């Protein structure tokens, strides 16, 4: 089964590095890649909103330039492509997060993969504004790739969790794909809290144990911050992929600011998979 992966690009060198990282990560996999660029330049917004027929040519010209750049980007990536990689380009006048959510449904995306270069001059920001919006709003799993990431075999996946999720309702397809590789292990990390005695969290814990079985190693520690728990674990174990679930209970927000990330040295070097929250009444665990 071919994986369907969207790779947003702003045509920067960092975006190109992130794209090549993804191609290498899935080199031996059958994949369909969508190279995506969205644009909302200020001089075009009024034209598109009021549908002025006298100015439509200007928008068409801009779109053609974007389309040409995407074709150039695809050609530049061709030497790095695997034998079962297929590419499509996609340009749209839209906000990136909105367009990716539309594509997730129409193109049945399995994953969005993007780089995480922060805003120029804003030291406290690790992820750029586009990446932050995508992380917060995506209906599809998102793989974010730090600037210093190096491609390596994923053998150890670290999954910090507070058991505040119904795991049977999560989209775990990409995580299951990684776990399907030989010798790959899921390290579930949990820091105890007073809420752990609740029936819901006990049930979530049993869901994880039942779902991942022998592939999972569970580490439960005394109550501490997420960053401290991750650092303590990473100091004793190798980690090639960090996974978190985005929901109102988790500390994902804390990973989007530089001070916390500075305390998690591994996070500036390894890819970070963000799973969207569960949807009530719909099982997405395939």
TrEMBL record:
Residues 3-146, 195-276 form the UspA domain. InterPro entries: Rossmann-like_a/b/a_fold, Universal_stress_UspA, UspA. It holds the Pfam family Usp. Belongs to the universal stress protein A family. PANTHER family: STRESS RESPONSE PROTEIN NHAX (PTHR46268), UNIVERSAL STRESS PROTEIN UP12 (PTHR46268:SF6). This is Stress response protein/ ferredoxin I 3. It comes from Robiginitalea biformata (strain ATCC BAA-864 / DSM 15991 / KCTC 12146 / HTCC2501).
